[in-house]
Fold this sequence. Notes:
Layout: E1 8-12, H1 17-28, E2 32-37, H2 44-55, E3 59-63, H3 69-75, E4 79-84, H4 91-96, H5 98-118, E5 124-130, E6 142-145, E7 149-152, H6 155-160, H7 172-192, E8 196-201, E9 204-205, H8 217-226, E10 231-234, E11 240-242, E12 244-245, H9 246-258, H10 260-263, E13 266-270, E14 277-279, H11 280-291, E15 297-300, E16 309-310, H12 315-321, H13 329-354
Parallel strand pairs: 1-2, 1-4, 2-3, 4-5, 5-8, 8-13, 9-12, 10-15, 11-16
Antiparallel strand pairs: 6-7, 11-14
Helix pairs in contact: 1-2, 1-9, 5-7, 8-11, 8-13, 11-13
Amino acid sequence: MKVRSANHAVVTGGAGFIGTNVTSRLVEDGSHVVVVDDLSRPGVERNLRWLLQTYGGRVTFERADIRDRETLRRVLPGARTVIHLAAQVAVTTSLDEPLDDFGVNAHGTLTLLEELRRLEEPPFLLFTSTNKVYGSLPALPLELAGSNRWLPVDPALRAHGLSERQPLDFCTPYGCSKGAADQYVLDYAKSYGLPAVVFRMSCIYGPHQHGTEDQGWVAHFAIKGSRGERITLYGDGAQVRDILFVDDLVDAMMLARENLDRTAGRAFNMGGGAENAVSLLEVLDLLAEINGEPTALSFEAERAGDQRYYVADSTRFRAATGWSPTVGVREGVERLAAWLAEEHAGKRSLRAVAG
Length: 355
C-alpha cells in the first residue's frame, strides 16, 4: 500500500460511527487517512461509501481484523496519528461470545501495541476505553429525583460526576476485555514510552451513528421514534448518562494530540459532564417533541452490568487542554434527528431509482 501523504493517520474501526467522524476531521485537517475496518457492524458500509465518495484518494481503505499483523505492519510505518476504535462494542454480545470479545478487544489492542512498539518513532495513539471499566457502581448511593432520573446522594458527585479516582471494577466480559486493553495501553506508555492516551468514554452520539438496541442508544431511540416503533427500556428508564455530541469528542481527540506533554500516559473520563446529563426517559421526551408524537414504550428487567447513573467528571482533561463541550443536548439530538431524516430520504431515493 502506498500512502499518498507524509502526514498520514491510521484509524482502526474507521468506518464506524466515531471512526467516520474522526476520519473526516483528520482529512479536513490535511492528513491522508488509512481506515482499517472489518465491516462487521451493520451500517458501516454506508459510512465507508460516504468517506470514499467525499474524500476520494485522501482516504485509503484496508479491510482487516485488528488482529491482522500483516495489515498493521503495512499501514503503521510513517503514521503520525493512530486512533484505535476497532472493538466489539456490545455488553450483550460479550456475554454470548466472551472469547471473541476478548480476542477483538484485548488481544487486538495488544497486537496493535506490539506493532507500534516495533516502530522507530511510534505515533500518537488514542485508545477509546469505556465507563464500563468502573463496573455497575452498585455501592454508589442514589436517589430517584421525581420519577425520571437517578442522581447521587452526594452533592459533589451530583454536581461534577465521577472522576478518574473512581476505583476500577471490571464487570461483564466486555468490561473485562476493554479494561484489560485500557490498562495495557497505559502500561505501554509507561514501560515503552509510547505516546498514548486513554479516553474512558460515556455515551457518544451524532451523525453516522446507526444505533441498535445493544449499542448507540440515542441513535437507536431516534431511529425507532421517527418510525413510530415501540422502544424497549431495560430497567425503569431513569438511568442517567452524560451524552456527548461526536464533534465535541473529536475536538477532544485533537486536543489530546496537541497537548501530549500533558496528556501522554494518562486516562481521562470523557463525556458531556453534568451539564449534559439526561435520563433515558428525558431523551425520549425530547425525541417525542421533535417527532411530534409520543413514543410507544415497553419495559424489561435491567441488563447485566448496567449503571443506573454514570456522569463523567472531565475536570482532569479540561485542566490539561482547555476543552469543554459546546453542543448541548437539545441541539445535538436535533442535529442527529436531522441527519437520520436525510439519511432515510437518501435511501428512499436510491430505492426509487433502482425500482
